[in-house]
Each structure stands twice: as C-alpha cells, then as structure tokens.
Design goal:
This protein is an alpha+beta fold. The protein has 2 domains: about 5-120 and about 275-285, Probable inorganic polyphosphate/atp-NAD kinase, domain 1 (Rossmann fold), CATH 3.40.50; about 130-265, Probable inorganic polyphosphate/atp-NAD kinase, domain 2 (Tumour Suppressor Smad4, Sandwich). Helices cover about 20% and strands about 40% of the residues.
C-alpha cells in the first residue's frame, strides 16, 4: 500500500440507500484529507457529490492505493477480483448481512478509514484461487476467486455426473448438483452450507465439497493448498453446467470439458481494525458461546 494514500477507489451498489448513506459521509471525509476518489463510470451518486473521478472499474487496480468496499461480503469479493493482479489492499465496510470479510461497522467507518490512510490497520494476506475452464476444443477461460470456485447444474432439474482428480489421481465419480472448491477463507461460505469444515484462514488447505450429493458417502474432503484439483463433466442426457468464481460466471462446462483449480500466485490483502480476532468473529456470526461461559 502506497503512503501517503493519494487515491482511493470505492466499490458498492451506490443506489442502495444504506450504501449511499455511507458514501455520502465518506466522500467529504476523504476530500478533507486530500485523497482522490475513483468510482465506476456507471456509479449512481447523489446530486451534489463532488470530488470524484469516474473510470472503468478495470482501472482501479492500476490507479488506486486503497479500495474501500461498502456492502456485504459479495461486494468485497467483487472488489477483490478487480484488483487481484495489483496487490491493492481492501477495506470492507459492512452494510450487508453476515459479513465475515467486511468487518468494519458503519459507525466505525471514518476512524477506520483514517487508520487505513495512516497505515495503522492490521494487514491480512489471503491467497486467491486460480480457475482454468477448458470448454470446447481451443476454448480456455480463466478467473480468480477469494472464496470459492463452483461447478453446478444450470437450467436443468437433473443431477450431474462428474469426476474429480487431485494432482492427477482419480478421487471419485459424483452424482449431484455440483461441487465446490473453496479456499480456507471460503470455508465459511458456500462450502459450509454443504457440510464442509471451518478452516482457519491462514492454514494452507483447500476444501472440496459436493453439492447435494446423491449418495451419503460422498463427503467433503480437505487437501493441501498445493494441490491441483480437476473436475470433468461426464456425458448424460440434459447435461448443463456452469462454473462461477465467487459467484461471477466464468463459463459453461460441457461434457468432455475440464475445470482446473489451484492456489494462485496472487494474494489479496484485507485490512482489519485493531484487535481483529477471527474466533470472536466466528462467535458473533455463528452465535457461538451464548451460554454461561460467554466472554
């Protein structure tokens, strides 16, 4: 992160009144500290909003010293994909629901932003996942994900037949709605709802979690973060599947096609308030420790 911070990009659904409220407070605050502000060229801002520069979002990574994502975890995941190749740190302001990643509350936003500008927040590096989708012959799509890469059925009521391999070794043939490959960071997202374990975010591990498997013996497994995971879709009637990276569509997986997921060389830096405690976060979001021994 460059100091002093000269340029900050804001990411969020500005048409949402809750997010517009935070943006309305943030813009004059940043201007008062001499920080230039970038927003998407399509951003909806309140009348009278000044001191902002509209640019294509793909330029945020090259031009910004800091990105502030205002919304839920989905907003931060979207922002992470925008800056994945540029090592721009992210600060998440929680105007969503659960908020495992956006851990700055609205009432703490301005002091936290000041601390970020001063380099006083806790930097937390997280690895990204790199996905390669080999579709029809000669077609290749690539994408990044902070949480998970998901292959799932599309526009069909039928389950999918597919095979998985880890480092070239055959693992299983599955029948179900799809499969999730999650990072340790993403272990508390979609994979958790499919019965996957919670993994401390700095552990070098990946979760492979089947979605609605047709057999109870098809369980989530944990593998080394150095693994290469392959998913191949098998031919059957009405087979339609798609691949998403943190919810963003990467492309269609066709029978005979192949999805490869591995840990990327690129990393994302999240900025946390002082005193950030992962286990306190788990207790808050998952309602643990509500008995007589709660701290």
């Amino acid at each position: 992160m460059a100091f002093p911070v000269g340029c900050c990009a804001l990411v969020g659904r500005f048409a949402d009144p809750r997010i517009a409220e935070s943006v309305g407070a943030l813009l004059p605050h940043l201007a008062g500290r001499g920080v230039r502000v970038l927003v998407s060229e399509n951003a909806t801002l309140a009348a009278g909003a000044a001191g902002v520069t509209r640019v294509p979002e793909r330029e945020f990574g090259e031009r910004a010293d800091l990105v502030i994502a205002i919304g839920g975890d989905g907003t931060l995941l979207y922002a992470a994909r925008l800056v994945a190749r540029h090592a721009v740190p992210l600060l998440g302001v929680n105007r969503g629901r659960l908020g495992f990643l956006t851990d700055v509350m609205p009432q703490d936003m301005l002091p936290s932003v000041d601390a970020a500008l001063a380099g006083e927040l806790q930097a937390d590096e997280r690895p990204l996942l790199a996905a390669q989708l080999h579709g029809a012959p000669g077609q290749l799509a690539q994408g990044f994900a902070l949480n998970d890469v998901v292959m799932q059925k599309r526009e069909t009521g039928r389950t999918l037949d597919f095979e998985t391999r880890v480092n070239g070794h055959y693992v299983n043939t599955h029948d179900g709605d799809g499969i999730i490959v999650a990072s340790a960071t993403g272990s508390t997202a979609y994979a958790l709802s499919c019965g996957g374990p919670i993994i401390e975010p700095h552990l070098e591990a990946l979760v492979i979690a089947p979605i609605c498997a047709h057999t109870l013996s098809d369980r989530p497994i944990v593998v080394s973060a150095r693994s290469v995971i392959e998913v191949a879709l098998l031919e059957r009637p009405d087979t339609q599947a798609q691949v998403t990276c943190d919810g963003g569509v990467l492309g269609a997986l066709v029978p005979g096609g192949r999805l490869e997921v591995r840990t990327a060389a690129e990393r994302i830096t999240l900025l946390h308030p002082a005193g950030h405690d992962y286990y306190k976060l788990l207790r808050s979001k998952l309602h643990w420790g509500r008995g007589s021994f709660e701290r």
